[in-house]
Amino acid sequence: MDLKVAYIILLLSLIGPSFVDTLACSKMCSGVSNNELSCYVQSTGCDVVFPTRVFSVADPGYYWVFMNFTTNLRNSSSNISSELRGRFWYRDEYLIQRYTFRTDYIRPDNHRNQVSVQLAFVIRNTSAQDSGFYDVVLKEGSNMILSTVVLRQTYRLFNSHSPSPAPVCSAVDTASLPLDVNADYLLYCTVLGYFYPKIVVKIVSSSVECPYQIVNKTKASLLPEMTSEHAYVTYCENTSFTCVVSQNRFTYDNEVNSCAFQLERPENGNSS
Questions:
Q1: How far apart are CA 146 and CA 50, in angstroms?
Q2: Domain positions in the chain
Q3: What's the 3-state SS for 192-221?
Q4: Which of 154, 195, 229, 267 is 20 to 30 A off residue 34, Cα-Cα?
Q5: What value does the mean pLDDT take over residues 74-78?
Q6: Which residues form the signal peptide (predicted)?
């Protein structure tokens, strides 16, 4: 047998059979370095293998896992929520329903007398109903008693059945605001909810001759679940303003939603 082939077989045998005999979903992910990890998958019937998370412990042993799932399924009449818990030994693979957890030793940290461990989380044979948020808490302990929290992680799974970003357009007459601006209206475009891939919010005018000024360019607000853009605009005849929200899920799947601002000629303004 070729030495290279033998080496690959040896590596696969160390990973474990259920992590090898899998058809992994093609996915795109972000937030790998923080505690809120988002992934988008286009297909169903495959396995979602989330990027591993690393944590440190003094001595690997038993782990207790707690997970809460909340759906974000499009057109869902209510937020379906479920909970599960289980216990497994370090380097064992724990399977409950279609969810798999596994911890593996990485390297020792001699300066802190700890070892680094990585947690793998897999959703087997994913379906449209798996779209949602998975809040995972991992605790270390003994066979019968759990003690310290070693990891808190939120996994967000999005697919083609996840909610689409729905922008809301509103306009405020600047005459009602304590502002000294050369504009007739302050436009607000807001989108509520978590979305991945990230959304782009843009206020556009149907005419290049009607002046407007973007106040803030597509940024997240103080609320983590709201993205907004504001603009000062001057009323112009035969000119409309629209808010466009785009989301490039894959290079060939770009979803665009929009809303229109309803503007009337102000009684005393800077209209053209």
A1: 25
A2: 3-158, 168-260
A3: ECCCCCCCEEEEEECCCCCCEEEEEEEEEC
A4: 229
A5: 52
A6: 1-22
Strand order in the sheet with 226-233: 168-173, 185-192, 226-233, 212-220
Pairing of strands 27-30, 81-89: unpaired
Would you give the DSSP letter of residue 8?
A: H
Q: Could you count the other beta carbons within 10 Å of the beta carbon of residue 48?
A: 23
For 25, 33, 51, 192, the CA distances from 28, given in Å and listed in that order, are 10, 15, 10, 22
Are the folds of 3-158 and 168-260 the same? yes
Q: Tell me the C-alpha distance between 61 and 245, whole Å.
A: 48
CA 22 to centroid of chain Cα atoms:
24
Place of tokens 């770009």: 254
Would you call 22 helix, strand, or coil by DSSP? coil
Residue of 106, 101, 97 lying closest to 119 (CA atoms): 101
pLDDT for res 127: 92
The CA distance from 91 to 61, in Å, is: 9
Please say whether the beta carbons of 251 and 224 come within 8 A. no
**Is the pLDDT assigned to residue 77 strictly greater than 50?**
no
CATH fold for domain 168-260: Immunoglobulin-like (2.60.40)
Closest of 189, 187, 37 to residue 123, by C-alpha: 37
Residue with tokens 């979602």: 48
Distance of CA 161 to the CA centre of its chain: 14
Would the pLDDT of 15 be above 70? no
Domain formed by 3-158, architecture: Sandwich (2.60)
Q: CA 70 to CA 134: how far, in whole Å?
A: 7
Give pLDDT tens digits for 210-265. 878 887 655 555 556 788 899 999 899 889 999 999 987 664 456 789 999 999 88
